[in-house]
From TrEMBL:
Keyword Ligase: no
Protein name (record): Extracellular calcium-sensing receptor-like
Keywords: Cell membrane, G-protein coupled receptor, Glycoprotein, Membrane, Receptor, Signal, Transducer, Transmembrane, Transmembrane helix
Residue ranges of every copy of the G-protein coupled receptors family 3 profile domain listed in the record: 522-786
Main location: membrane
Sequence similarity: Belongs to the G-protein coupled receptor 3 family.
Taxonomy, superkingdom: Eukaryota
Species annotation: Cottoperca gobio
GO molecular-function term, one example from the UniProt record: G protein-coupled receptor activity
A GO CC term attached to the entry: plasma membrane
Length: 787
């Protein structure tokens, strides 16, 4: 004997409880067509087994089916009746034997929990076809519970994966306030958190709580989430649907569970405006040969014994369904009922030691505990090819169809399969979706968007909004030198040292390398003035060479003059070493060449200054000073002063020479390629020595400024040294403050300015006389003898 408990009616009317007389039976109303089909399928499977020659060949299975009317109170009555019988008896008589060997049911988890806890102490197996609450997987609390459907553990996780797959990170969540809804939603919320999905609100209600339902509707109306996950039993979903239609709340994307996503009771003329485009997981369709004919025709002729509706007086509300068969094509749970019945049959087949060669042993006394233990071992295939077995928790393998509410060509509502989920497949193959086949709410083909904040594009990063979930954030542009090259980046990454962020802050690009080029405008101008200075120097040297025998050239110490012109040429040319990309050799050359050539130049000027002073002193009576500073001494003084600078440069290059450096400190967005000083002491020693000689030269020239005008060269030397010192004193702060290539430009400018100053101040007056006033180029004029 197999028992069955289904909610064939969905409403119950309780009798008055006066406690003065025996309560009358509960009266039920409002037929639930889907549950009625479950009862029909159970009868079909039992009759098919009873006709089988291979399964329980000489054993017949009977059945007792109870209607719990969708009430846990009525469920308890059904349980007691299935265990003890339905007779109203008085006395202590008790056979100790259950009235049934197994119970099929119930459809909802809460009622199934009542059923399983009641039968648990008696070890009566309960096999549910649609109770999916994960709580029923606890074998300590429910050791004799089995189900031909998977636990909500898989469905809840799959829901979170489905939501994440479509990029919906901001959803609402509604569940039935029952074991089914609360447990399923708890698993979904945990899985959603792992997937990075945020839930704007979580609300729940029970079918008999209209006030809570109205609060749920208000929450939905005010929310910003466009996607709602509904972990609801079909009764609660029907109640919610009625209110949403009443308040004209449409255009939302519902994500449903197996309990309601394919429930025909939800299909009404107005329901598609709310549920059109809904997606959800459904039990796979039943494909059992002979079942459709039985449900539509045979059942009415054999079980209710009537062919004409008018001939049936009992079960009048059921008889009204006789000619209705629109739902048969969409039956899904019927296969689970079919599998459950056959699982019990195979268990009994094993206990009674049935085989093909001989009949079953009817002498074996079958106990419910034996059936429980045998069910754990069953493994068979039904006629449509599905394999039936139970895992360690008593559940079946998780296999779901992903269905989408769509309009058919005849304007009917269809539950179109658009994918599947199979937990038995390897990772990566479990979840398959045909996105192009999905119809979204409002008949649209575009994927709806449901996010708290729009995605942060590359180049920005997320900053969470205070007091809100992690999916609510602001997008902040990365700082300079930092990038993010992915969408929704949590932070920005610094570019490598030689790279910098591009304008969009989504890629690192090589920094611009800055140095003074020959080809840029500034470089061309400096080269022009360098070469022009060299040209002027060569012209002066040529002019002096042509007029070397004239009094003016002889009087100005032609040997020192030519040496000075040579050193000035080197001074002009050394500025070229400061242009172009710095290298190890160019860095050492530019500073040492500059230092040595300028000392050579100043030494020559200093020599000329001393010669002027000595020449004047030599004209005094009894003076023999010129013999102490003749041509040999002049050469030695120039050589001596220059050798000191050479020695300083050698020490500098030996101890810590200048070297090329990539300066990335002064500017973050570019690299300044410059020559590091190596030893700052060496640099300032070179510069200081030049300054010392220039100062000495200036002082001596200043002392000689009042000598006779026609002979006096000291005034021009004084003026040239004044310009020289002014240029280099100005150079120091400009050199320190000017970054990058401008530092080099300032140094070149100082070299050129001081070189031009020396050239023009010392030689321009003489060239003026030689070229334009040749009549003044006489010994008489130079000696100051005017007539």
């Amino acid at each position: 004997m197999i028992g069955g408990a289904f909610s064939i009616h969905s409403k119950i009317t309780q009798p008055p409880l006066s406690s003065t007389e025996k309560p009358t039976r509960l009266t039920c109303s409002s037929v639930n067509l889907r549950e009625f089909r479950f009862a029909q399928t159970m009868i079909f499977a039992i009759e098919e087994i009873n006709k089988s020659e291979f399964l329980l060949p000489n054993v017949s299975i009977g059945y007792r089916i109870y209607d719990n009317c969708g009430s846990t109170l009525s469920s308890m009555r059904a349980v007691m009746a299935l265990m003890n019988g339905d007779e109203w008896t008085v006395g202590k008589s008790c056979s100790g034997q259950s009235a049934v060997h197994a119970i099929i049911g119930e459809s909802e988890s809460s009622s199934t929990i009542v059923l399983s806890r009641s039968t648990g102490p008696f070890k009566i197996p309960v096999i549910s076809h649609s109770a999916t609450c994960e709580c029923l997987s606890n074998r300590k609390e429910y050791p004799s519970f089995f189900r031909t459907i998977a636990s909500d553990l898989y469905q809840s996780r799959a829901l979170a994966q489905l939501v994440k797959h479509f990029g919906w990170t901001w959803v609402g969540a509604i569940n039935s306030d029952s074991d089914y809804g609360n447990n399923g939603m708890a698993i979904f919320l945990a899985a959603a958190k792992e997937e990075g999905v945020c839930v704007e609100y979580t609300v729940k209600f029970y079918r008999e709580e209209p006030e809570k339902l109205m609060k749920v509707v208000e929450v939905i109306r005010k929310s910003t989430a466009r996607v709602i996950v509904g972990f609801l039993a079909h009764v609660e979903m029907n109640n919610l649907l009625e209110q949403l239609i009443l308040h004209n709340i449409t255009g939302l994307q519902f994500i449903g569970v197996e309990a309601w996503i394919t429930a025909n009771s939800l299909v009404t003329p107005t329901s598609f405006s709310v549920l059109g485009g809904s997606l959800g997981f459904a039990v796979q369709k039943a494909n059992i040969s002979g079942l459709d004919d039985y449900l539509i025709k045979d059942f009415w002729e054999t079980e209710l014994k009537c062919k004409e509706t008018t001939s049936c007086k009992e079960n009048q509300d059921l008889i009204e369904l006789k000619d209705y068969h629109d739902d048969v094509a969409e039956l899904r749970y019927s296969s689970n009922i079919y599998k459950a019945i056959y699982a019990v049959a195979h268990s009994l087949h094993s206990i009674l030691k049935c085989s093909k060669s001989r009949e079953c042993d009817n002498t074996v006394k079958v106990t419910p505990l034996q059936v429980v233990e045998s069910l754990k071992q069953v493994n068979f295939t039904i006629k449509n090819g599905d394999q039936v077995w139970f895992d360690s928790t008593g559940a079946a393998v998780a296999r779901y169809e992903v269905v989408n509410w769509q309009r058919g060509s005849d304007d009917s509502v269809q539950f179109k399969p658009v994918g599947y989920y199979d937990a038995s497949l390897p990772p990566g193959q479990k979840f398959v979706l045909k996105t192009e086949a999905i119809m979204w709410p409002g008949g649209k083909k575009e994927l709806p968007v449901s996010v708290c904040s729009e995605s942060c594009h590359p180049g920005t990063f997320k900053v969470l909004q205070k007091g809100k979930p992690v999916c609510c954030y602001d997008c902040i542009t990365c700082a300079e030198g930092e990038i993010s090259n992915s969408t929704d980046s949590n932070d920005c990454k610094k570019c490598p040292e030689e790279y910098w962020s591009n304008e969009n802050r989504d890629a690192c690009v090589l920094k611009n390398v800055e140095f003074l080029y020959f080809t840029e405008v500034m470089g061309i101008i400096l080269v022009f003035f360098t070469l022009f200075g060299v040209l002027l120097t060569l012209i002066v040297a040529t002019l002096f060479l042509i007029n070397k025998d004239t009094p003016l050239v002889k009087a100005n110490n032609s040997e020192l003059s030519f040496l000075l012109l040579f050193s000035l040429t080197l001074c002009f040319l050394c500025s070229l070493t400061f242009i172009a990309r710095p290298s190890e050799w160019s860095c050492m050359l530019r500073h040492t060449a500059f230092g040595i050539t300028f000392v050579l130049c100043i030494s020559c000027v200093l020599g000329k200054t001393i010669v002027v002073l000595m020449a004047f002193r030599a004209t005094l009576p009894g003076s023999s000073v010129m013999k102490w500073f003749g041509p040999a001494q002049q050469r030695l003084s120039v050589l001596g002063f220059t050798l000191i600078q050479v020695l300083i440069c050698i020490l500098w290059l030996t101890i810590n020479p200048p070297f090329p450096l990539k300066n990335m400190i002064h500017y973050k967005e570019k690299i300044i390629l410059e020559c590091a000083l190596g030893s700052p002491v060496g640099f300032w020693a070179v510069l200081g020595y030049i300054g010392l000689l220039a100062l000495l030269c200036f002082v001596l020239a200043f002392l000689a400024r009042k000598l006779p005008d026609n002979f006096n060269e000291a005034k021009f030397i004084t003026f040239s040294m004044l310009i020289f010192c002014a240029v280099w004193i100005t150079f120091i702060p400009a050199y320190v403050s000017s970054p990058g290539k401008f530092t080099v430009a300032v140094e070149i400018f100082a070299i050129l300015a001081s070189s031009y100053g020396l050239l023009l101040c010392i030689f321009a007056p003489k060239c003026f006389i030689i070229v334009l006033k040749p009549e003044l180029n006489t010994k008489k004029h130079l000696m100051g003898k005017t007539g």
